[in-house]
Amino acid sequence: MQHILYLHGFLSSPLSVKAQATKDYFAVHHPDVQVHIPALSNFPSKVEAQLTALIEQTPALLTNGLKVIGSSMGGYLSTFLIEKYAGRAVLINPAVRPYELLQQFIGPHVNPYSGEKFTIEASDIDVIRALDANTLSEQKAYKVLLQTNDETLDYRLAAAKYALSELVIEEGGDHSFVGYENHLPSIADFLLD
């Protein structure tokens, strides 16, 4: 049994379209793979401890190296985990400097999936910044899927950071990564190689 960790983005959930497409794809095409899709805390101050606890409580995630799929903020967190534990990650329109973007999100929010109310504080910016992997120890550990019409993030930031990784840059699309399901076979090949 192999294990893959899927990390959703900010204001998202395990019920997101990509998370569910990932779970369904592996259930059908790789039934020997267990996909873990945790509901990440809406509170940035809790996410690192949540991820560390998950990995410590599920040691099978580290067998043969950690394998992660991360979307947006989940891509940022995936990079943090790979640099900490080693392994491989597929990043979908990953956030590169979310601590800059989150400045615009200081204040109250409601997660559209769970209905949970929470507030982003100024102090959360530093918490997120502390998870930044400024340099990548192994560029080949990453496969990065980007679409140029991402309305939330500038894809060029990720293209630059992961320039020596396996980069797939598609013209058009949006932040959700249109046609994600078409990439699942190559994502599986990369992670399960």
Automatic annotation (TrEMBL):
PANTHER family: ESTERASE YQIA, ESTERASE YQIA-RELATED. This is Esterase YqiA. It comes from Alteromonas genovensis. It comes from the Bacteria.
